[in-house]
Amino acid sequence: MMLRLLLVLMLLCSPFLGEPAQAASPAVTRIEPRIEHDRLLLDADVDFELNNQLRDAAQRGVPLYFTADAIITRHRWWWFDRTEVDTQMTWRIVYNALTRQWRVGVGELTLPVSSLDDAMDVMRRIRNWDVGSTEGLDVGTHYTGQMRLRLDTALLPRPFQVNALNNSSWTPATPWAEFEFSISTKQGGTP
Fold first, then answer.
1. How would you write 89-157 as a 3-class SS string?
2. Which helix or strand (DSSP H or E) is residue 10 part of?
3. Which value, to the nearest 10 degrees, does the dihedral of the CA atoms of residues 54, 58, 59, 62 take?
4. Local confidence band at 174 (pLDDT 50, 70, 90 cut-offs)
């Protein structure tokens, strides 16, 4: 009887002993909004690791597109919250097998990087993201924002879009992370 109990305990505890730690689920770990020259800028740090299927596809030359979404709202007590800013920024990561070079880019601008991990670091450390003008935002008003980073499956090649519908490993995304801010004074001399 004692031997059976010991075996059952060993079987129950074995998943927690000796196995490598699982990769942390994607998450936005820090968001810092700031205002410079009447523009709202965001700095963010994102914990986002690629799974083996996405890493393998990227190494075979399949371009991966990642999109950061940001929404800024203003609370209204008499109606639904008002959306002040709803914007996106998309990165493209691609490997060229002929030149054996990784490239990461936003829009028309692409930069060479030495590895897939270096390309991912560009998205993991978002700096000076211009999300919009502060012209329509009021001084002293409390604003709430949300941000996330996701693999944009709509921009993948068609066969991979079908695969993304059937396989959750092709749809990694961070949950929405919230942040708050208010504008203390308008730049340019007028509060």
1. EEEEEEEECCCCEEEEEECCEEEEECCHHHHHHHHHEEEEEEEEECCCCCECCEEEEEEEEEECHHHCC
2. helix 2-13
3. 130
4. very high
pLDDT digits (tens, 9 = 90+) for 121-156: 999 999 999 999 998 888 888 999 999 999 999 998
DSSP run (H or E) holding 158: helix 158-166
Full 3-state SS string of 64-77: EEEEEEEEEEECCC
Tell me phi and psi for residue 89, to 5 degrees.
-135, 130
52 burial level (CB within 10 Å; 0-12, 13-18, 19+): exposed
Pairing of strands 177-182, 142-151: antiparallel
- Give the distance from CA 133 to its chain's centroid: 22
Q: Which residue has the tokens 């030495």?
A: 114
Apex 130 CA angle, 125 and 136, nearest 5: 140
118 vs 101: CA distance, rounded Å = 12
Residue 21 phi, psi (nearest 5): -70, 140
Signed CA dihedral, 36, 40, 46, 50: sign only: negative
Looking at the whole model, is its pTM more than 0.90? no
